[in-house]
Amino acid sequence: xxxxxxxxxxxxxxxxxxxxxxxxxxxxxDATVEQIITIKHLEKADSxxxxxxxxxxxxKLPVSPEKEEKEEVKRRWWVNLGAWDxxxxxxxxxxxxxxxxxxxxxxxxxxxxxxxxxxGLVFKTWDRAEAExxxxxxxxxxxxxxxxxxxxxxxxxxxxxxxxxxxDALAKFSAxxxxxxxxxxx
Length: 186
Ligand SMILES: [Zn+2]
Ligand SMILES: [Zn+2]
Prior knowledge:
A hairpin with a 5-residue loop joins β5 and β6. The model has no long low-confidence stretch (mean pLDDT 90). A four-stranded antiparallel beta sheet has the order 5-6-4-7, with helices on one face. The protein has a three-stranded antiparallel beta sheet with strand order 2-1-3. 26% of the residues lie in helices and 18% in strands. The protein has two domains: 1-67, no CATH class; 74-163, Alpha-Beta Plaits (2-Layer Sandwich), CATH 3.30.70. α3 (91-107) packs antiparallel against α4 (128-145). By secondary structure, it is α+β, with helices and mostly antiparallel strands. The structure holds zinc ion (2 copies). Residues 20, 22-23, 54, 56-57, 59, 63 line the site of one zinc ion.
């Protein structure tokens, strides 16, 4: 008789106690046919108004596998605060622009200059609320120093950089899998 693994719900120990597949783990892999409790046994027991319980975890068979706790992907928020060291050719514009950048840098602690794809001032945090607050503050500074600059609200965008829940590596913004260990990042 071939018993499919998916039909096995537990095992009878020699002393008649029952152990569910969850409690048994793989220590019962070489169980004999007589020791195996299958779905069919349960159906038969059920028709006799009987239930089988695991003697170890006391749960009723079939014991479904504990859902693997899905680890949450942490996100590091980047508040992109723009590049203000412009060289537009217009003296007044460049002066105002630089003034905005200077004040953002001096008034918002932790602002750094990021090179790369979108070079400019950036603020990084694990706290979404803090990211929003920094964005507001930078917006406020911009409007105060250079009200005519005309940049819309959404100029300071917030992007989320995922961190792998398995190995803690920081991934690319758009990554769906960890470069380092291959874990899903969604
Ligand atoms: Zn059990
Ligand atoms: Zn990883």
